[in-house]
Every structure is written in structure tokens, then in C-alpha cells.
Automatic annotation (TrEMBL):
GO terms for biological process: DNA-templated transcription. Transcriptional regulator of the ttuABCDE tartrate utilization operon. Residues 1-58 form the HTH lysR-type domain. It comes from Rhizobium sophoriradicis. Pfam families: HTH_1, LysR_substrate. Gene3D superfamilies: 3.40.190.290, Winged helix-like DNA-binding domain superfamily/Winged helix DNA-binding domain (1.10.10.10). PROSITE patterns: HTH_LYSR. Belongs to the LysR transcriptional regulatory family. One of its GO terms (molecular function) is sequence-specific DNA binding. Keywords: DNA-binding, Transcription, Transcription regulation. This is HTH-type transcriptional regulator TtuA. It comes from the Bacteria.
Length: 290
């Protein structure tokens, strides 16, 4: 019985299909099917059954899934134990935001891959909140104000931002200076979210309105540069454009409160060593080693 066959079966069981499992594992669908067939032959039992909705676990498959997952995890732990001190192996699947990930987090993941040549890293960059358990991710890097969930979160650094608009927008519509004035302007938003603003030691919540919405910070930046409205964006996206004069900070007496950069993972007793190492590398990069 091959350990890769066990891992593949667990992925198919968790992903609910061969196609999704193949994408997670980075292999072909035919390879997934061959591994499952080989495992079923070794066990002498059918583990998966095809349905109109895809793949379903048989009774034997449902029983065997937890055993297979536990064996795979223990094998990974055993391999790491006999590796040279500090070396990582296996696979790490990370979700990161598209707006910030390729420029700020990809270099850290690349450094991690260079330092651990036996580690396979798969990173997915998207601004939607992926379901870590359903989609098979070990962890995610998220930025902003963390929503309540059952995920385990570790803050790895601060994230500062500003309200910005183009000089053209300000010339045509004026510059909002107070929270009350902000709600009268065109806001560039990801959806219908509320915005937080600081008022001295207090944090106020405002509900802006706007006709331009996007699920990506880079797209909102483009809209701000085009003079469509006021955007709330992290400094990493706006510093260059403020320096060039293409954008102007507004609401300078009422900036958004500092947000954060977080590593989140599914609930469990202990994070995997791979996730712990990534977390520490991000802390060193974004929190000055604190």
C-alpha cells in the first residue's frame, strides 16, 4: 500500500471529486484515478461510488478515510523527524489575497521554498475568502479586519491604510473631511461593507454608498486613479501614487484604524510545523521580528 495512494484518497474524499483533488495535488485526473483503483485493489473494497453529483464515499470509504488521514499525517511527522534539523518536507497549500499577495507574500513563500528544497508549496491568490477545510488549504494569509469565525488566527503584522481620491475627483466633488461628509461621497468598495474611521480615541462606523464595486484592491485603486470616488486602501497600494500626486489623502484627521495581517488555519490542537515556520517568517518580515 503506497502512502501517496492514501493521501490521494483523502484528497478525493475531502474535495468531493477527482477533478478537485487533482487540482489540489497538482497531478492529472488519470493519475488520481489510478491511485484510487490501486488502493481499492490492495484493500479489496470499494471506497468511492460515482453519483449524479460526482463522487461519494461508500460505507467502507467513510470508515477508512480517517485512518488514511491519520496515517498520512503520522508519516509526514516521521519524515520531518529524520530530516536534518529545521528542514521541511511534504506539501503546503496557502491561500493569499490577490491585491497584496503576489507583491508582498509571494517573496516570503519563495524564500521558504528555497530554504526547504523538499517542501512543495502551492499558493492560490484570490480576494475571496476560501473555505480552508472544503478546499483543502493548510492555511491562509488574510489582511484587514478579521471577521469572527471558527478558524484559528495569528496576527503576523500591522496593516496601515488611508482614504484616498484623485485630484480630479476632489476638484469636482470636494474633499471629505469628517465622517458625516464621507457618506455623501462616491465610495469605492468591495461590497456593502461598513467603513471604520477614527475620531480621536474612538472608532466610528460609517456606511458609505457608491456605484463602483470590485472584489479586488487593485481594481479599486484603478477606479480611484480614474477619479470615480474615494477609496480605503492599504498604504502598500497607494504610497507610490500619493508620492507622484496621482492620489491625495482625504479624511487625514479621521484615518481608518490600523488593520492587520493574519495567518488563519482550520481549528485543531496544534498547527503543523510547516504552518508554524511560515508564520514565523511572516512575523520577521512584517512585524520586525517581534
Amino acid at each position: 500500500m503506497e502512502i501517496e495512494d492514501l493521501r490521494t484518497f483523502v484528497e478525493v474524499a475531502d474535495a468531493g471529486g477527482v477533478t478537485s483533488a487533482a487540482q489540489r495535488l497538482g497531478i492529472s485526473k488519470s493519475m488520481v484515478s489510478r491511485r484510487i483503483a490501486r488502493l481499492e485493489t490492495d484493500l479489496g473494497a470499494q471506497l468511492l461510488a460515482r453519483t449524479t453529483r460526482g463522487i461519494a464515499l461508500t460505507e467502507a470509504g467513510a470508515t477508512f478515510r480517517d485512518y488514511a488521514a491519520r496515517i498520512s499525517a503520522e508519516m509526514d511527522a516521521a519524515r520531518e523527524t529524520i530530516l536534518p534539523a529545521g528542514e521541511l518536507c511534504g506539501r503546503l497549500r496557502v491561500a493569499a489575497p490577490l491585491s497584496f499577495g503576489p507583491t508582498h507574500f509571494a517573496p516570503v513563500l519563495s524564500q521558504m521554498a528555497r530554504q526547504h528544497p523538499q517542501l512543495h508549496i502551492y499558493s492560490c491568490y484570490t480576494d475571496r475568502f476560501v473555505d480552508l477545510v472544503t478546499e483543502g488549504f493548510d492555511c491562509a494569509i488574510r489582511v484587514g479586519y478579521l471577521q469572527d469565525s471558527n478558524l484559528v488566527a495569528r496576527r503576523v503584522g500591522p496593516l496601515y491604510g488611508k482614504f484616498v481620491a484623485s485630484p480630479e475627483y476632489i476638484a469636482a466633488n470636494g474633499s471629505p473631511e469628517t465622517p458625516d461628509e464621507l457618506v455623501d461621497h462616491q465610495a469605492l468598495m468591495q461590497g456593502t461593507e461598513a467603513w471604520q474611521v477614527t475620531d480621536g480615541d474612538r472608532v466610528l462606523t460609517v456606511r458609505p454608498q457608491g456605484r463602483f464595486k470590485a472584489d479586488n484592491g487593485v481594481a479599486l485603486l484603478a477606479a480611484a486613479l480614474a477619479g470615480i470616488g474615494v477609496a480605503r486602501l492599504p498604504d502598500g497600494l497607494t504610497d507610490e501614487h500619493i508620492a507622484s500626486g496621482a492620489l491625495v489623502q482625504v479624511m487625514s484627521r479621521h484615518p481608518p484604524p490600523p488593520a492587520g495581517i493574519f495567518v488563519v488555519r482550520p481549528p485543531g490542537q496544534h498547527p503543523s510545523r510547516k504552518v508554524r515556520v511560515l508564520t514565523e517568517m511572516l512575523i520577521q518580515c512584517f512585524d520586525g521580528g517581534a
